[in-house]
Protein: Cytochrome-c peroxidase
Organism: Undibacterium luofuense
Amino acid sequence: MLVTGCGGGSAPSQVAAGDADNMSAAARLGEKIFKDPSLSASGKMSCASCHDPSAAYAQTNNLAVQLGGPNLDQQGLRAVPSLRYLHLTPAFGKNAEGDFVGGFTHDGRADTLAKQAEAPLLAANEMANTDRADVVAKLQRAAYAAEFKAVFGNQIFSQTDAAFERILFALQQYQKEDPDFHPYDSKFDYFMAGKAKFSDAELRGLALFNNPQKGNCAACHVSARGSDGSLPVFTDYTYDNLGVPRNLKLAANADANFYDLGLCGPNRQDLAANTALCGKFKVPTLRNVATRKVFFHNGVITSLRDAVNFYVTRDTNPENWFPLMADGSVIKFNDVPALYAANVNTSEVPYNRKRGMAPALSPQEVDDVLVFLATLNDGYKP
């Protein structure tokens, strides 16, 4: 489907990554490429089909994973992430503590926004182009092909790899330069700028979000300003294994021996030997999380309330999330091979509970956290 961008209004002061009226020629091309369904095997799928501006550049339906391929009937493997607030993501590597951080996609295998854009263009279950030459040939037939040559050179289409790299570069610049990808105009942003007041429930939710003995959300979803005074994007870019339930709606999971192990594969193989990483996925930004339709890498949970409740009752009431044996015992962490079950985070709050204990958050406290999370939605009107 074709979509159009949506503006965000007058936002609080923040370092801007670009101005929609002053984007570079490459970025303007990137916008056309982003919204062009003719660049897919089906002729019906663009980047914007799964990353709709009206949904914070995420999906608009409630499918756990999206359908692609030549006939739009091939199921993907992972849930669609929002493309908002990715411009600050560092390249994949280790931080000062020795933990892997950064990179794009759920497993960080792309170091730049440009490299990230390559996967959907060529994936058999997404835009399903045969190869780079296939994408370039399609763009040569596009209405903006002459504009592409004007920006990147009259002979650019004679150099397939160079032309394809320019396509990726244009997509990257569009996401970097168009402020609609990072508007910083949520109620939280206005609150941080002293231009809006939080309700009592929003203040309680923020306190619970930050409290290391309650929600402890800020341990990974950083809520404080950066050292340079920049507004937070609510992720520390690290990786974690949360032991989320297996999603039986995914075709890949019909094979009982198949497991999506994140950093260990199947999409990336360079870290497969480091089994301590198996089952870890990147911590996403929580900006616009209240607009999301599905949650976690496999889209197994379909409401934000259930996602928060999973965090706080995964261990106190595992029977609510995982299948039961005939004797009533729970098959916890059923989407992680038994060999790697020890990789699941069971030490940090709120995961440090045992079955039958009180959850870290009461139902009323969950309500307050949900109210706070809604303040992270872009497009707030004071």
User: Anything to note?
Assistant: The chain has two domains: 20-93+104-181, 187-234+242-248+285-376. Residues 17 and 177 are 5 Å apart (CA to CA). Residues 160-177 form the longest helix (18 residues).
